[in-house]
Amino acid sequence: MQETFKRMSESGTIRREDLYFIWEQKDFSAILPYKEFIFNILIYLDILAEQRRYDTITGSRLPVENFFVPCMVIERNTTSFMDKECTPERAICLAFLFKGTIIPPALPNRLISACLSMWTLKQYEERTLLFSGFIGLSFDKSHDIVVCVEGNKILLYIVHKTSSGLIVPDIATGVKECLVITMERISDFYQSTIHAKRSQQSPFHIEYSCSQMQCFISETEAVQTSEWMCDKHKLTHNAGNWLVWNQDKKKEECEQNCPGLSDDALSQIPSDIELLRFSTNCVSNQMHELVSYLEMSKKWDSITHNYPNDIEVAKYLVLSKWKEIKVQSNFKALAEALTKMDISTHFLCQVRRERRAETDLPLEFLDCIPTDEILDKLAPQIGQVYFQLGAVIGLSIGTLETIQSNNPRDLAAQNREVLFAWRKDKTVKPTIMVLIQALVNIGKGARCLQEVLKNVDLKTLKESEEVRGEGAISKEPKNTSEQKPHGKKKKSKKCSIA
Ligand SMILES: [Zn+2]
Ligand SMILES: [Zn+2]
Question: Residue 197 has what pLDDT?
Fold first, then answer.
């Protein structure tokens, strides 16, 4: 028994049997007959969260052995993640400030459990970033999320791999909305238990941090003032600074007060996915001029010769080559080329935009890892996009070229290898939703995958899903495809699949 408690406070996990064992004591005799039901209620209330595991070969979900119990974790965060990774150069921050001097202690723990069910727990310095009042998660290959509690504040950080100036606003806005909805849902529950009517006012308000992530300004004030100087650092911020948290996802062009890429962002070398977003936005007949300013004309000729029918691949490849061989291959060089072409440098802002994928597929499928069968059937359908797909899912050009030469003139086999390589990588949980987002990112769209899923035996997926516990209580209404998210009590669809 002591072992169990020790493990809970150290690793924050418990096994189902262990909890049943605890309940076998006299004091819990009222609970024991309903142990499975009570256990599932604890999951439903975000007091326990599943630690999901997948079969790396078939992608099917394995029975859940361990459950996270954030409320039992007493260890504090002693890793250097906040000092080394979550720095003002690479991260942005906002605070949810609660009225009153402290936050009800159960709320952060339930919020942490909810985060665990949405995103992948991050590993850092060989430890998982789950501590008392602190959690670190991987959103995708470029973005990490940190949620932590400090006094009457819950702080949210979005950390980018290279520069805070390159954080995709659609992602920051989505994560913020998601946490707001989750916290309102949790607070609503507490209010309902004390029979209080849901007050019109939210129990917290939002504050944005200064660029040093230490001073804060309330959201209401921030939208009213055009300029704000923070107390401690005397740094001036303008309204454009908060756009990252409030991206209008439908709007494609920059907002009026868009400050463009920051100096720090301009000095960065674009990642593959950023280059891909840039190349997708380049108009084909402008490429000739662009490559001449980048001194890549000869390479462009040979690449277009090799890919005569696929200008999209050629556009991306020539920019990848440019990044590989030129010394100063940063965003600034691209900005200068654009200026010479008389194109606004706000064109570069598009590398930070991502269209969030929308889909009618039921939620329970979105969270599954695609099986071999699904990937096999999808591979021949996606066509000549494997360079782009490879870039989006984080494979290097070198790897992609090897795959290509291993499978000459066999597009389906090339795509298949890319898809399987993606599923093997566990930085981000390789779910069907992530795959849908990747297909949208490369401009292919998700219809091909939806078609495949129609003809695939979804019972297999569902069966692995059912392993999560007999009689598990679904947090979502059945038939999600027909149900529009209404009210704020349920997690919105966007939220749980973000
Ligand atoms: Zn400051
Ligand atoms: Zn802009």
Answer: 57
